[in-house]
Amino acid sequence: MNCIFCKIISEAIPSDKVYEDERMIIIKDINPQTKIHLLMIPKSHYSNIVEMTEAQAVELGLCLKTIGEISNSLGLKEGFRLVSNKGTNGCQSVEHLHFHIMGGELLSERMG
Ligand code: 5GP
Ligand code: ZN
């Protein structure tokens, strides 16, 4: 499949990986927009939550729980923001569901 995140998951393309388990990887975003800018990418390929199956939704819930559990070790003790862009208006550029994990500094209150 011609998906850059699937290639990163299979290590066909290198990445700066900070966490991996059977369900997901967390990598450093190649173009960070905040002091800490990570991407949580479920290993299952689907574009966004509109196309997500029930099984994938359960997996995603567990992925989010894991982010919570390891957030301190990622340097996010003071807080963080999760963002998942969808479609044209959401400015989604990679069609494999992912969550931006942003922090390491006080973020803007403005999100749009
Ligand atoms: P989106 O715009 O789809 O919400 O987010 C895609 C994100 O993936 C962008 O922040 C972009 O910088 C990041 N990205 C795109 N290609 C690569 C890559 O090859 N490696 C890494 N680490 N991040 C990437
Ligand atoms: Zn993919």
Structure commentary:
This protein is α+β, with helices and mostly antiparallel strands and 112 residues long. Helix content is 21%, strand content 22%. A five-stranded antiparallel β-sheet has the order 1-2-3-5-4, covered by helices on one side. It starts with a helix and ends in a 9-residue tail after the last strand. It binds guanosine-5'-monophosphate and zinc ion (ZN). Residues 4, 15, 27-31, 39, 85, 91-94 line the site of guanosine-5'-monophosphate.
Write the layout of secondary structure elements.
Blueprint: H1 4-9, E1 17-20, E2 24-28, E3 36-42, H2 54-70, E4 80-83, E5 99-103
Antiparallel strand pairs: 1-2, 2-3, 3-5, 4-5
Guanosine-5'-monophosphate (5GP) binds next to strand 2.
Shape: globular
**Structure summary, number of beta strands:** 5
CATH superfamily: HIT-like
CATH topology annotation: HIT family, subunit A
Distance between the termini: 32 Å
What share of the residues lie within helices?
10-25%
Associated small molecules: guanosine-5'-monophosphate, zinc ion
Oligomer: single chain
Strand order of the largest sheet: 1-2-3-5-4
* Radius of gyration from CA coordinates: 14 Å
The average pLDDT value, as a whole number, equals 98
**From the coordinates shown, what is the CATH architecture?**
2-Layer Sandwich
Low-confidence runs (pLDDT<50, min 5 residues)?
none
